[in-house]
Amino acid sequence: MSADTITVRDLRRLWKPHKERLGEHQPDHPTAVRFHRACSWLAEAEVQQMNAEQQGDLVLIQQWTALNALYGRWNEEQGEPVSDRQSLKLFLETILTLDSAHHLVTVLEDNRGLVLAIVENAYLNGYFWDEPNEESRVRLAKSKFKAQSWYVEKRWLLLTELLLERIYLLRCQVVHGASTFGSKLNRKALGHCTLMMSHLLPAVLRVWIDHGADVDWGPMCYPPQEQKNAAVPVRRPR
Predict the structure, then answer these.
(1) How far from chain centre, in Å, is Cα 70?
(2) How many Å apart are CA 120 and CA 125, to the nearest integer?
(3) Distance of CA 116 to the CA centre of its chain
(4) Helix, strand, coil distribution of the chain in percent, nearest 5
(5) Structural element, H or E, at residue 67
(6) Is the C-alpha dihedral spanning 70, 74, 80, 86 positive or negative?
(7) Residue 78: DSSP 8-state
(8) What are the Cα distances from residue 154, in Å, to 88, 207, 213, 228?
(9) What span, in angstroms and rounded, lies between the C-alpha atoms of 26 and 202?
(10) pTM here?
């Protein structure tokens, strides 16, 4: 079963033995909760993607939230989530180390044209927005050349980080109100990013299923809390 054809239903079925085993040791096991959260968002993205041209903004939010459910870490000293850049880097390093079946690498190789199209898109590059001038265009050209070199050198971590950095910029634009819903200006970039995420996420989850059940993924952000049956105080009218 390839990453391109696998569905959330398939992923949940493959994960079920791990879920049951982990649940015997600890109800709401953090690794199982992460997987459950990720699949809940990815399932919605699957539905919306059938109408991706109109719902692309929502699809990207749902896809990134699914990924964030897997990589997010809690900083126990500061009492807040670890930065996205730091936690995502740690996550990708672990995933690529565990990926003995090369699920993620296969996706990158099979979608090389799509990857390079995302990398070279000026509007997905922070350099362009820092100062849109000739110098930033030169740096953009270097980014594409760098990505092509990493394919040859098989530097998959650097390539995946660069790719997700580009997608993350668009995600931030959408989430933080720096983009109009349904905007015609970003349809092409949005289509490329959601398509790439639809390939990447199942591959990442396959690695999680095959090798990640017993990995320490770091403190989870906002774990489920038991519902307390405490009585709610009633305010009396004065």
Answers:
(1) 8
(2) 8
(3) 18
(4) 70, 0, 30
(5) helix 52-71
(6) negative
(7) T
(8) 20, 19, 27, 51
(9) 26
(10) 0.89
What is the Cα 87 distance to its own chain's centre?
Answer: 12
3-class secondary-structure state, position 74? strand
Taking the C-alpha atoms of residue 19 and residue 23, their distance in angstroms, rounded to an integer, is 6
Q: Are 48 and 62 in contact (CB under 8 A)?
A: yes
Running DSSP on this structure, what letter comes out for residue 228? Answer: P
pLDDT in tens, the chain (238 residues): 555 679 999 999 999 999 999 999 899 999 999 999 999 999 999 887 766 667 889 999 999 999 999 999 999 999 999 999 999 999 999 999 999 999 999 999 999 999 999 998 888 887 666 666 666 666 777 788 899 999 999 999 999 999 999 999 999 999 988 788 878 878 889 999 999 999 999 999 999 999 999 999 999 999 998 754 444 343 443 3
* Domain-wise residue ranges, the chain: 8-211
Closest by CA position to 104, among listed 113, 92, 114, 116:
92
